[in-house]
């Protein structure tokens, strides 16, 4: 039998197994998640689960990196797939008994390449940071120069923080955003690239709210002979849903996360062309990781199928529409929104025009049940202090959009944020009243 014919028959056998189990009323595998067992055995941790589940449903979850993954993804994560050791890749494992989980990884890779239009996908990285580490391991040598967004302007820890392997092992040069507009200045990045001749240029950010011009990065990189590494941990789900441009045609390597807007399990992935496939695979395993977590790999497959469905495209576009509405409404409430708005799920805003610093703001919002982050703001709202970097709020609309909230609710959220910042005593009850209309898991009570 040819490889394709054998793969097809394995897919069919797996589907038939599931249908037969459903017919026999035995659709739950032995070892499927059993909360009652946890409750009996370990009430302390059962209580943690109950508490966290209630907390997530009882407030506004505006952390830009978070989302509510589906019950199907959660079912795979908590399954006996997590028991399986599977070092290596499908068909070439260091452990026996991998024939079933091999199928899960093959399906995940097929779905990922189809979803993102990439020639190759590695779905094993345990996290976004692991994906970036693998990209560096594949393309760089210790001591190489790398150009990336500086951390105070929105770079991630893996983009050269001295507290991270990246800053320790490579020579990072930071680029920033234009102080007037808050936007990337591609001429300035080109000038830096010409001066420093980096081996790689990283594009991607934890807080930049605008689309990135990947073609411009590729042009700059080609001029100086550098690789482009696109770290799209944040917009990966928007890219999957067609609501943000794709770096795949331009970047040599694309790193991402499968949680955040993509709404899958916590984890990472790497995309690249066929010519770098082997280097990337070797950089993930055995260079930077051991055995793949097969429950997470299979859960990624489920998330990729969800993201390929038309409903996910609608979701991704609604995430952006909601973020734009929320950014506008926050500005109407007196906050200064960086770059004047957003193209993505993510907003950063300065609270100082309301005479509240970011840390105090986050505390007041938390007290009202509104959960979000602070982040460095490269452009301050008050021009005189522009050169003094300060913190602002960072928030996103991925989770509230999954809950079914739309633009009217974004307007309401901005009102609630303003009320909480004023320490209006009604903000907690009003937040609760809003979120209880949109339970994250409506069928689960
Ligand atoms: C741009 C960027 N890269 C990498 C990461 C790391 O992802 P993880 O927390 O899964 O390691 C993040 C996480 O927020 C990110 O925003």
Structure overview:
Helix content is 46%, strand content 13%. Helix 8 (186-196) runs parallel beside helix 9. The chain has helices at 3-23, 35-41, 43-58, 71-77, 99-116, 128-139, 165-169, 186-196, 214-224, 236-240, 274-288, 294-308, 310-332, 358-367, 398-402, 407-421, 427-435, and strands at residues 60-61, 88-89, 92-93, 120-122, 145-149, 171-175, 200-203, 227-231, 253-257, 268-272, 336-337, 346-350, 370-371, 373-377, 390-396. It is α/β, with parallel strands linked by helices and 445 residues long. It is globular and about 60 Å long. Among the domains are: 118-288, 3-Layer(aba) Sandwich (Aspartate Aminotransferase, domain 2); 310-444, Alpha-Beta Complex (Aspartate Aminotransferase, domain 1), CATH 3.90.1150.10. It starts with a helix and ends in a 10-residue tail after the last helix. The model has no long low-confidence stretch (mean pLDDT 94). The chain is built from 17 helices and 15 strands. Bound molecules: pyridoxal-5'-phosphate. Residues 65, 127-129, 132, 156, 158, 204-206, 231, 233-234, 257, 268 line the site of pyridoxal-5'-phosphate.
Outline of this structure?
With 445 residues, the protein is of the alpha/beta class. The protein has helices at 3-23, 35-41, 43-58, 71-77, 99-116, 128-139, 165-169, 186-196, 214-224, 236-240, 274-288, 294-308, 310-332, 358-367, 398-402, 407-421, 427-435, and strands spanning 60-61, 88-89, 92-93, 120-122, 145-149, 171-175, 200-203, 227-231, 253-257, 268-272, 336-337, 346-350, 370-371, 373-377, 390-396. 46% of the residues lie in helices and 13% in strands.
């Amino acid at each position: 039998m040819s490889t394709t014919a054998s793969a097809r028959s394995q897919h069919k056998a797996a589907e038939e197994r599931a249908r037969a189990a459903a017919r026999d009323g035995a659709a739950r595998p032995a070892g499927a998640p059993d909360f009652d067992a946890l409750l009996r055995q370990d009430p302390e941790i059962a209580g943690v689960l109950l508490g966290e589940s209630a907390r997530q449903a009882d407030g506004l979850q505006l952390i830009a990196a978070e989302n509510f993954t589906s019950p199907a993804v959660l079912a795979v994560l908590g399954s006996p797939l997590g028991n399986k050791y599977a070092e290596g890749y499908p068909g070439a494992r260091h452990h026996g008994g991998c024939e079933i989980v091999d199928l899960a990884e093959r399906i995940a890779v097929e779905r990922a390449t189809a979803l993102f239009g990439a020639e190759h996908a590695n779905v094993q990285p345990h996290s976004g940071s692991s994906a970036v580490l693998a990209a560096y391991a594949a393309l760089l040598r210790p001591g190489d120069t790398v150009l990336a967004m500086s951390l105070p302007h929105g770079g991630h820890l893996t983009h050269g923080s001295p507290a991270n392997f990246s800053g320790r092992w490579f020579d990072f040069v930071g680029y920033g955003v234009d102080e007037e507009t808050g936007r990337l200045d591609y001429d300035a990045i080109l000038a830096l690239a010409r001066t420093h001749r980096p081996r790689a240029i990283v594009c991607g950010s934890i807080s930049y709210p605008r689309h990135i011009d990947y073609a411009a990065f590729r042009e700059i990189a080609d001029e100086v002979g550098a690789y482009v590494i696109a770290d799209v941990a944040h917009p990966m789900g928007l890219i999957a849903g067609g609501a943000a441009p794709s770096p795949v045609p331009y970047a040599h390597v694309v790193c991402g996360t499968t949680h955040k807007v993509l709404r899958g399990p916590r984890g990472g992935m790497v995309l690249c062309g066929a010519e770098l496939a082997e280097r990337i695979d070797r950089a993930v395993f055995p260079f930077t990781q051991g055995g793949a977590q097969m429950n997470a790999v299979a859960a990624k497959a489920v998330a990729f199928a969800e993201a390929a469905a038309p409903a996910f495209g609608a979701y991704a576009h609604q995430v952006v529409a909601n973020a734009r509405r929320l950014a506008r409404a926050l500005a109407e409430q007196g906050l200064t929104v960086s770059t004047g708005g957003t193209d993505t799920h993510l907003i950063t805003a300065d609270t100082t025009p309301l005479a509240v610093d970011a840390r105090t703001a986050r505390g007041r919002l938390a007290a009202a049940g509104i959960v979000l982050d602070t982040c460095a703001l490269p452009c301050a709202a008050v021009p005189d202090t522009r050169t003094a970097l300060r913190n602002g709020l960072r928030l996103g609309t991925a989770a509230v959009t999954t809950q079914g909230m739309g633009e009217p609710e974004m307007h309401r959220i901005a009102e609630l944020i303003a009320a909480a910042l004023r320490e209006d005593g009604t903000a907690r009850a009003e937040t609760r009243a809003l979120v209880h209309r949109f339970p994250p898991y409506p069928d689960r009570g």
